[in-house]
Amino acid sequence: MSLSATKFVHPITTPPTSRSSDKPLFSTFFGSNHTKLRFNKPIVAAQRRSSSAASTSFSPVVAVSSDVVKEKKLKSASNLLITKEEGLVLYEDMILGRFFEDMCAQMYYRGKMFGFVHLYNGQEAVSTGFIKLLKKEDYVVSTYRDHVHALSKGVPAREVMSELFGKATGCCRGQGGSMHMFSKEYNLLGGFAFIGEGIPVATGAAFSSKYRREVLKEPGADEVTLAFFGDGTCNNGQFYECLNMAALWKLPIVFVVENNLWAIGMSHLRATSDPQIWKKGPAFGMPGVHVDGMDVLKVREVAKEAIERARRGEGPTLVECETYRFRGHSLADPDELRDPAEKAHYAGRDPITAFKKYLFDNKLASEQELKAIDKKIDELLDDAVEFADESPLPPRSQLLENVFADPKGFGIGADGKYRCEDPKFTQGTAHV
Amino acid sequence: MLRAIRNKSILPAFSAVRAFSSSAKEMTIREALNTALDEEMSADPKVFLMGEEVGEYQGAYKITKGLLDKYGPERVLDTPITEAGFTGIGVGAAYYGLKPVVEFMTFNFSMQAIDHIINSAAKSNYMSAGQISVPIVFRGPNGAAAGVGAQHSQCYAAWYAACPGLKVLSPYSSEDARGLLKAAIRDPDPVVFLENELLYGESFPVSAEVLDSSFCLPIGKAKIEREGKDVTITAFSKMVGYALKAAEILAKEGISAEIINLRSIRPLDRATINASVRKTNRLVTVEEGFPQHGVGAEIWFSSLHCLFSVQLVNSWKYTNLLHLLNSTSVIEESFGYLDAPVERIAGADVPMPYAANLERMAVPQVEDIVRAAKRACYRSVPMAATA
C-alpha cells in the first residue's frame, strides 16, 4: 500500500460554474505550475480569471509534484517568485520550525516535557508559506500540532519551550501545554485538542473582523483568519458546517487543510469517500485549491491569492496542501502502519532541502549565509531550552487563577465574603 | 506475532485449567478488556466494535489488539474522525438488534457525540414506551492521564450518571473490567463504560472463576474491597487504588478504613453504602472529577435522604416525594448514624492544568484521602497541605 505522490496526479476537471457568473472559481491550479497547464505563459491574476472562465470547455489541468516543476522553474530564471530577503526569511522560519521540533523530541525523551506532543516535521512549508504572509493582527487557529504555527506567527521560541516544559514563563504560564498554545499579542487563537474544534472558532474570529468592519465601522479592520487542520478533520461535521457559513456570509477566512494522508493510523483513503478534499470547497460555493505542500513557494503563491481574496472581502477559500509528517502522529506513536517506502519518498521531498536547492540554483543565497542562519537558530534554541530549564514551576497559588476573568465566580465563602478575597483560598487540598 | 495473539485468545477454559494448577493468575486491565471483548464477540455474532483506530492500529491504547485479525473488518470497524456520526450510526444499529460496542478514544471526545448518547440512546426506550431497546456499550478511557491538558482530562462519571436511561459503570481491577464489560455487552440498555488510561497496564490477580467465559458481574452492586470499622471510603476507578493505599497508611495509625469500590455509578449501590455507613458512622467520598454536582455529592445525599423519608413517611402529601427518593427498599436512618460530616474529596474546581506540579495539585492524592479520613475520625490535620 505505498502511496506515492503520483496518486495525486490526476486530471482535475473544472467544477461547474456557479450560478452567479461574477464569482470566479479557482479550481484550476495556478502558480509556478503553469508548465503542465495548457497555457504556457506565467499566469497573472487577471488572466487566471479569464482562463478559468474559458476553461469551462473542459481543458483538464494536472496537479503535479514539485520535482517536475522545479526543473521548469529553473529555466524561467527571470520569473523568480521571491527576493533574497524574503528567501532568507522563509528559510529561517522553516529551519526554526524543524530544529525546534527536533529539540522537542530530544527534550521529551529526557523527560523534560510530558503528555501528548505532536511534531510538525515535514510540514514546515505550509506553516511558513501561509503565516509569513500575514500581518501581526491577523488570526491563526490551529490544532494540537501547533508549535510551528506559534513560532511562524511570532511567538518567541523561549515562551513556546517554557510552555512545553510546564513552566510559569510559558506563553500560557504552563497551564495549556503542547496542545493549547494561545497568544493574545500574536493573535494565535490556539491550540485545540479536539479535531475540528478550531474550525468554528476560526470562523468566529473571521466573523468578528467582518463585524467590526461593517457594523462597528472600524477603519482598517480587515484581519484575515487562517484555520489549519488535517485530513482527518475533513470528515468531521463541524468542517462542513463552517464551510457553509463562511461562504454564506463571505467571511475573511482561509481554510488550510494540511493533508498529510494519515490520521494517527488511519489512512486518508480508508476514511474518506472522496479523498480530494479541495473539491469540497466548490460544493459550498467557495474556491477549492490543491497545492503541493512540500514546496514553500507554491504554497506561498496560493496563500497570497487566498489571503488577498479574503482581505478584499470576497469570502473564504479552501486550500488543500498535500504534505507529509516525517514523524509519527505524536511522540507516543510507534508509527508502524505507514509504509517505509512512502516515508522514504516524502523524505526525499523534504521542503527545506528543496528550498535550499532553489536558493542556491537561483543564486539567492550562498552556503555560508544559510549555515549562518542554521547556527543562529541552534543558538536561539539552546538559549530557549536553558531559559525554560531555569524558569520556575508555576507557584501553588496559580492553580486557581484564570478560571474566571472575574474571580468572584468562585462564589461566597463561609464568612460571607467573596472566596477569592480570602488569602487562604489557594491553600486548600485537591478539593478546594 | 499475529499467531501469538491468536493463541492468546484461545478459550479461557484452557487458561482456567492452568490457573488451578498454579497460584492466582495476574492479568492487566488491558488483557481483561481484550479477552472480554473477544469472548463476547465470539459468543454473539451481533456484537461488533466501532471506533477510531480500533482495527489496524490495534486500538489507540491497544485494548482491541488482535480483534481485527480474528473477526475481520466487518465486525471491527475503523471509523473516520466523526464521533457524532459514528455514535449515531451505532445507536441506529442497536435499534435494530445489533450490539455495537462504540469506543471513544477518550471520553472527552464523547462530548462531540453526547447528543446521541443521551437523546438517541438513553431516552429511546422511554420515548417509545418500550418498543425500542438500545443494547449499546460506549467505552473508553475517562478522567485524567498524565500531562495531557485541560481538554483530555475531564471525568464524565457525574455527567452521564445524571441521565436516566443510561447505566454507568467504572471498573477498577481486572476482575471488574472483565465482569462489568461482559455484563455491559449483554445488557439490553445503553451502558457507559468508563475505563482509566493509567490503569490499563496495571496487573491484578484473577481467580479461575473470573477467567471463565461466562463470568459476569451484576450491574448495580458495589464491592467492599477492604473491610473496616472506623470510616467508610467510597471510590471508583483509579481512586480505589489510592484509597487502598490510604487505608494501609491509616491502619498504621490505628484507623481501620472500609473501602467500597462503587463499580456502578448508575445505578448507585446505595444499600451497600448505607450499610457500611451504619457500621462505621463516618464517610469519605473520593472521586477524580470536579466537585460540584459530582458523584460524592450524590452519595452524600444518599446517606442524608433517609432522614427526610422517615420524617415524611406518614404524611400522604409527601408520598410522591418518597418515590422520587429512589433506591433502598428498607428505609433506615443513615443520617442519624453519621458521627461526623461527610468528607468529599474531588478534583480541584479548575480545568486541568498542564504543568506537572499544578496537575498533581488538581487531582486527589493519597495524602488527601488520609487527611480527610483523619478529619472524619476527629483526628484532624490542618487544611493546608504540605507542599
Strand order of the largest sheet of chain B: 3-2-4-5-7-6-12
CATH topology of the largest domain in chain A: Rossmann fold
Q: What is the SS-derived class of chain A?
A: alpha/beta
Structural class of chain B: alpha/beta
Task: Considering residues with a beta carbon less than 8 A from a beta carbon on another chain, report the largest interface and each chain's count.
Answer: A-B, 48 and 50 residues
Portion of residues in beta strands of chain A equals 5-15%
Morphology of chain B: globular
The rough form of chain A would be described as globular
* CA-atom Rg of chain B in angstroms: 21 Å
Number of strands of chain A: 9
Structure, briefly:
Chain A is α/β, with parallel strands linked by helices and 432 residues long. Chain A has 14 helices and nine strands. Chain A is 39% helix and 8% strand.
Notes on the protein architecture:
- The complex is a heterodimer of chains A (about 425) and B (about 375).
- Chain A has helices spanning about 45-55, 65-75, 85-110, 125-130, 145-155, 155-165, 200-215, 235-250, 270, 280-285, 295-310, 340-345, 350-360, 365-390, and strands at about 10, 60, 140, 225-230, 255-260, 260-265, 265, 290, 315-320.
- With about 425 residues, chain A is an alpha/beta fold.
- Chain A folds into 2 domains: about 50-390, Thiamin diphosphate (ThDP)-binding fold, Pyr/PP domains (Rossmann fold), CATH 3.40.50; about 400-425, no CATH class.
- Chain A has a 5-stranded parallel sheet with strand order 3-4-5-9-8, with helices on both faces.
- In chain A, strand 4 (about 225-230), helix 8 (about 235-250) and strand 5 (about 255-260) form a beta-alpha-beta unit.
- In chain A, helix 3 runs antiparallel to helix 13 (about 350-360), helix 3 crosses helix 14 (about 365-390) and helix 7 (about 200-215) runs parallel beside helix 8 (about 235-250).
- Chain A is globular.
- In chain A, about 50% of the residues are buried.
- The model of chain A is unreliable at about 1-80 (pLDDT under 50).
- Chain B has about 375 residues and is of the alpha/beta class.
- Chain B contains 17 helices and 14 strands.
- Chain B starts with a helix and ends in an 11-residue tail after the last helix.
- The model of chain B is unreliable at about 1-20, about 305-330 and about 385 (pLDDT under 50).
- Chains A and B meet through loops of A and helix 16 and helix 17 of B.
